[in-house]
Write a structure and sequence with these properties.
α6 packs parallel to α7 and α10 crosses α11. The protein is globular. It has 11 helices and 21 strands. The protein is of the alpha/beta class. It has 3 domains: 66 residues, Roll (Archaeosine Trna-guanine Transglycosylase, Chain: A, domain 4), CATH 2.30.130; 111 residues, 2-Layer Sandwich (Transcription Regulator spoIIAA); 192 residues, Rossmann fold (3-Layer(aba) Sandwich), CATH 3.40.50.150. β14, α8 and β15 form a beta-alpha-beta unit. Bound molecules: S-adenosyl-L-homocysteine. S-adenosyl-L-homocysteine (SAH) binds next to α7, β14 and α9. Its EC number is 2.1.1.191. This is Ribosomal RNA large subunit methyltransferase I. InterPro entries: PUA-like_sf, PUA_sf, RlmI-like_PUA, SAM-dep_methyl-trfase, SAM-dependent_MTases_sf.
């Protein structure tokens, strides 16, 4: 039996939860929780003992659980999960029937009503990512609900509940048929090779689909393109297919070289005509400056936080400096695509970083367009940090 517990919530937090804020924060509790198992049901009450909602206990990076329903009598079992999955599927109907895009997010945590769980589709395979042991304790009911409504070949899962949300190393296969990897998926007719049983990441970040499409269709033709923090080179592939004169991909991880060659090759792009550089991006900036290299299009998509031998990069602290480096090697009327998945600052703060960097470099600029998460990464207005992606296209002026 699952433990059930009544929990008192402080006034301000209670008001937020009443308006739909789904995260249960440690600081919201009137009294610290007694020792309780992950997955325990929490019944939340305000200080006047009015019912606020019910959720589960599951420790994540941020928060100690998620509110799942305001209905006191709702059972958090298969039927409940089934109805959430059905709604999520309706919202992605265009993807489920598309011949051009076969990889997308089917279920996006709190945006689809269940914080702590995401489900991604890769052709006929699905990857469940569990963000706490608490949500993982519901897995039998959730997999059962999923089987009732989706035809699939196989399911893989990522458990991201080691210390600070790190991936728990395991055989990630769950049920169905095992896939053969690489599995080739499509996104707006661009192919990506993915590996569903090879660590925490699969080879492509599905939240950039709109940006890759835009770069391919409107920003690449005839251009020299620098893709920094390039990982498997997904942006470079989009640019090459969009007619870039040449792409340069820079990532410090050794695996990025064979992975990028693979992504080019499956798309029929001659990788030998492209540059793929295994190097610290900050070293590369120095090298490019020394050689007088300049690019028409520079893509910046760093992780929120990274530590290399020589450098610690934190998007919240260091993005302005990163932009300055990029500006210095961008052609006079070139474009910088500045992207961040850092949820601790807003779009308006990001604009300030851009303004400051251009000012310091003595550059006029225009923001020509910007993007946040695509439709399949559904978010809820009541939870700001869920809407983490910020991408700004900056056109430099003479
Ligand atoms: N832009 C990529 C995703 C980036 S993931 C895409 O579209 O798919 C972050 C990548 O940054 C990782 O591959 C990591 O190896 C790389 N990285 C982190 N710090 C770096 C640094 N200082 N220099 C170069 N690459 C770095």
């Amino acid at each position: 039996m699952r433990t059930e517990l009544n929990v008192l919530i402080k006034k301000q937090a209670a008001d937020k939860i009443r308006k739909g804020f789904p995260l249960i924060e440690q600081t919201a509790l009137v009294r610290a929780l007694p020792k309780v198992d992950e997955g325990a049901i929490l019944h939340l009450f305000d200080e006047s003992e009015r019912y606020l909602g019910k959720g589960y206990y599951g420790k994540q990076n941020k928060g100690i659980g998620w509110v799942l329903t305001k209905d006191q009598h709702m059972k958090l079992e298969t039927t409940f999960f089934n109805s959430h999955l059905k709604k999520a599927i309706e919202h992605r109907s265009e993807f489920l029937t598309s011949e051009h895009t076969t990889a997308f997010r089917l279920f996006n945590g709190e945006g689809d009503g269940i914080g702590g769980l995401t489900i991604d589709c890769y052709e006929d395979y699905y990857v469940f990512t569990w963000y706490s042991e608490g949500i993982y304790s519901f897995r039998d009911d959730i997999y059962e609900a999923f089987q009732q409504i989706i035809n699939f070949k196989g399911i893989y899962e990522k458990k991201r509940f080691a210390k600070a949300g790190q991936y728990v190393e395991d055989d990630d296969f769950v049920q169905g048929e095992r896939g053969e990897f690489p599995l080739l998926v499509k996104e707006n007719d661009v192919k990506f090779a993915v590996y569903l049983n090879d660590g925490p990441m699969t080879g492509v970040f599905l939240d950039q689909k709109d940006v890759r499409k835009r770069i391919k269709e409107h920003y690449s033709k005839g251009k020299s393109v620098l893709n920094t923090f390039s990982y498997t080179g997904a942006f470079s592939v989009a640019a090459a297919l969009g007619g870039a004169r040449k792409t340069t991909s820079v990532d410090l991880a050794k695996r990025s070289l064979p992975k990028t060659i693979e992504q080019f090759s499956i798309n029929g792009v001659d990788y030998e005509a492209q540059d793929i550089v295994v190097m610290d991006v900050f070293q590369y900036f120095k090298f490019a400056k020394k050689k007088g290299k300049r690019f028409d299009l520079v893509i910046l998509d760093p992780p929120s936080f990274a530590r290399s031998k020589k450098h610690t990069f934190s998007a919240a602290k260091d993005y302005t400096g990163l932009l300055e480096e990029a500006i210095a090697i961008t052609e006079k009327e070139g474009v910088i695509v500045a992207s961040t998945n850092c949820s601790t600052f807003s779009m308006s703060k990001f604009h300030m970083f851009i303004k400051e960097a251009c000012k310091r470099q003595g550059k006029q600029y225009e923001i020509v367009e910007q993007y946040s998460l695509p439709k399949d990464f559904k978010t809820t207005q009541s939870f700001g940090p869920g809407d983490y992606l910020k991408v700004v296209f900056i056109k430099l002026k003479k």
